[in-house]
Amino acid sequence: MSERYDFVVTSGGIGPTHDDITYKSIAKAFDLPLVLHKEAYALMKQISKPKPGHPDFNWDEDSPARRAKLRMVELPTDASRPLEEQFLFPCKDLWVPIAVVNGNVHILPGIPRLFTQLLKGMAPAILPRLTDPEGKGIVRVSMLTPLTESTVAEYLSELAERVEPKGVKVGSYPRWGKKKNIVTLVGRDKEYLETITPEVLESVKGTLITPGKEEELEDEEEES
């Protein structure tokens, strides 16, 4: 996948237990050593807080617990690449680094909250790589609708059949526990997508989701 794709992400398997083997496996796959990342280790000691009821922990004393923690900061390291390109710290309040192997394999934790936080933190570095200056790449239009999927199903089916010759795909995604669902239009012809968007918005009583503003709409939805 590293050879075929520009951006690869792994999720999970970087904790302290015996079955957390992602770092070890990727290091083996790319024939790299696991090296203690001193900055990550220092941040771990600085940011980590003892949990109530847990036994006292000594960072300076060799112990099974300390060795387990070290597993989380012993990272695949390529001596031929600059370290700042291999280890990213996009979130100041997290000691967890994003290890980048072979220039495009990004190793992230599996905990959804951490995964999402780190991925969003990488956005400034990722977005320029996704820019298509000639406008020939994939364009996505997303909108929130207060209508149920069953209510809009007939219209979306008719719409999908109508726009398919133009290379546009219509998507409908329910959001469990939320007041509104998502409808998407995906294609390569940006101008054509812009011409049909007003019709779709009116038909599904939708609100356009501005790229990068999804969280603001979530807040508005909760307030309403």
UniProtKB/TrEMBL annotation:
| Entry's Gene Ontology molecular function annotations | FAD diphosphatase activity
Q: Which domain of life is it from?
A: Eukaryota
Q: Which residues form the MoaB/Mog domain?
A: 3-125
One GO biological-process annotation of the entry reads:
flavin-containing compound metabolic process
- Domain annotation FAD synthase middle: ranges: 143-210
Do you know which SUPFAM superfamilies this protein is assigned to?
Molybdenum cofactor biosynthesis proteins (SSF53218)
**What PANTHER family does the record point to?**
MOLYBDOPTERIN BINDING DOMAIN PROTEIN (AFU_ORTHOLOGUE AFUA_5G11210)
Its protein name is: MoaB/Mog domain-containing protein
